[in-house]
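Please review this one.

:::
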Amino acid sequence: MLNRLPSYLPPLSVMLGDIGSPSTAELARAFGVTERVAKKWRALDEAPRPVLLALFWLTRWGQSAVDADAVNASRLHASIAVALQREVDRLHAQLAWLTGLADFGSANAPTLESHAPGPRLVLVHPPGERHSGAGQAPADAARATAGTPR
């Protein structure tokens, strides 16, 4: 962050002229010093570096630097957003391809969706019709064959 500080600061009189030539009283009030101190700064055309830095960001040069940083940051973030959108689109295409392979309802399916088991085949026999124990549950089959000799 400190690398964003300006390496060159214009003289105090130039910066004050750029921001509308405030009076000595306005300068003193803005920086919380006496008018005597502000008058001394004007006479020497120098001020402490923090004062010069604060004034710099109010000038057209400081505003231009802030604007350039904002434009560069917005372009960077817009490029990142475009790159991330491309990655999302690629991943959607890959997911569509994987889900299109086949859906067998296996435990290791390529998606995280839960697959409900399909409908079960149920054999219904008309009432009164005798049938073998084939296709019945083991307990039902045992009951059906319990009374028959082997």
In short: Residues 60-101 form the longest helix (42 residues).
